Amino acid sequence: MAGVFAHTVRPAMLAASRADRLRRTVERSPVTRKVVRRFVPGDTLDSVLDIVAALRGSGRYVSIDYLGENVTDADDAAATVRAYLQLLGALGRRADTSSVRPLEVSLKLSALGQALDRDGDKIALENARTICERAEEVGVWVTVDAEDHTTTDSTLSISGDLRVDFGSLGTVLQAYLRRTLGDCKDLAAAGARVRLCKGAYDEPASVAHRAAGDITDSYLTCLRVLMSGSGYPMVASHDPAIIDAVPALALETSRGAGDFEYQMLYGISVGEQRRLADAGNQVRVYVPFGAQWYGYFMRRLAERPANLAFFLRALAKRGH
Ligand code: FDA
Fold first, then answer.
1. What is the atom index within ligand 1 of the atom nearest the CA of 63?
2. CATH number, domain at 213?
3. Average pLDDT over residues 125-150
4. Is the beta carbon of 155 within 6 A of some atom in ligand 1?
5. Model confidence over 64-92: pLDDT tens digits?
6. Could you identify the atom of ligand 1 that is nearest to the CA of residue 234?
7. Structure confidence at residue 95 (pLDDT)
8. Whether residues 99 and 232 fall in one domain
9. What pLDDT score does 320 carry?
10. Based on the domain organization, do 174 and 221 belong to the same domain?
11. 4: domain range?
12. Which range is least confidently modeled, 4-18, 91-105, 216-230?
């Protein structure tokens, strides 16, 4: 059953995450909204600020993602920048400038124009720079998300350019990609802030590990490189095999609780988030918000058969 999900259902769902007509149908369904709320707590800035306050109150840090991806129009990319500037304006009143910043925003370069036919990389770089400048002024960190493997070279190059002016810029690496061990070595040597995740897209075997065990092995190998380096590792996973391996790795590499952080997604492994934070670890929760939740939501459904079953049951109940 798990094999059928991984080899058939999951790729189909990830393909559906890019289908425009299906997006419109799913977005309009009132049933979907209830299920979506587990992963995307709100559409509006006010709703996300309430969530930020609650997470900070429980001792957790946050990274906020204004949802949207693959824009095909420079005006949409400019609208994404405006949304981030408004978000940063509101966060600035709550930020502090400790060396580990409790507040962070996460950006997708494809929402900032990376895929535009003319000068996409340049436009995404300039848009990201505008956001980084404002974030720096208000004491908020910025991390650049990782998208599908066709964007990795461009994303790492843009992140590298941004890091020259914004030394704390975070970069996301995906352990399922075969290239990632090399990227980890480079960024660990550069002292960069790196969020290591498994990877959420449907990638071919030519570029990515596809078996669950191979991905976890790659993750642990990459994490050891990051923990041994001079940067700031961010362990983005809910996998107990990974979380349980971290204390020994931290000990081996002489890292204290303040020298790395755990990261988890809003609505997932919430008990574990609290347990880790209560035990004195730094835990950051990735909180997406905004109206364009479809792609993000479909990737979360595709990660776990139980999510898809829950969603389908909700739809079926509505049919009765
Ligand atoms: P795995 O998928 O093996 O899950 C381990 C356990 O976690 C599951 O058994 C289940 O209990 C729980 N779990 C995981 N996903 C769940 C879900 N959707 N619903 C319910 N339970 C779930 N990816 C990417 O390609 N680019 C990026 O920029 C980012 N950014 C990012 C930031 C942060 C903070 C996190 C935590 C993750 C990402 N990801 C990402 C997503 C990441 O690549 C990956 O798809 C998910 O984290 C799931 O992988 P796990 O490591 O949790 O393992």
1. 34
2. 3.20.20.220
3. 97
4. no
5. 999 999 999 999 999 999 999 999 999 98
6. 34
7. 65
8. yes
9. 45
10. yes
11. 1-39+296-320
12. 4-18
Whole-number Å distance, alpha carbon 75 to ligand 1 midpoint, is 31
Residue 195 among the catalytic residues: yes
pLDDT band, very low/low/confident/very high, at 132 (cuts 50, 70, 90): very high
Q: What is residue 264's predicted lDDT score, i.e. its pLDDT? A: 98
Cα–Cα distance measured from residue 7 to residue 176, given in angstroms and rounded to the nearest whole number: 15
Task: State if residue 270 touches ligand 1 by the CB under 6 angstroms criterion.
Answer: no
Residues 286 and 316 in one domain: no
Task: Give the global pTM.
Answer: 0.94
pLDDT for the residue 50:
95
Read off the pLDDT of residues 3-45 as tens digits, 9 standing for 90 and up: 767 777 788 778 777 777 777 777 777 767 778 899 999 889 9
Residue 211 has pLDDT above 80, yes or no: yes
Are residue 270 and residue 315 in the same domain, yes or no? Answer: no
d(CA 85, CA 90): 9
Same domain, 124 and 273: yes
Residues paired with 210 in a beta bridge: none
Residues 183, 262: one domain?
A: yes
State how many domains the chain has: 2
Mark whether 170 and 83 lie in a shared domain: yes
Q: How far is the CA of 198 from the centre of ligand 1 (A)?
A: 7
Cα–Cα distance list, 215 to 17, 26, 101 (Å) = 22, 31, 30
Cα 42 to middle of ligand 1, angstroms: 20
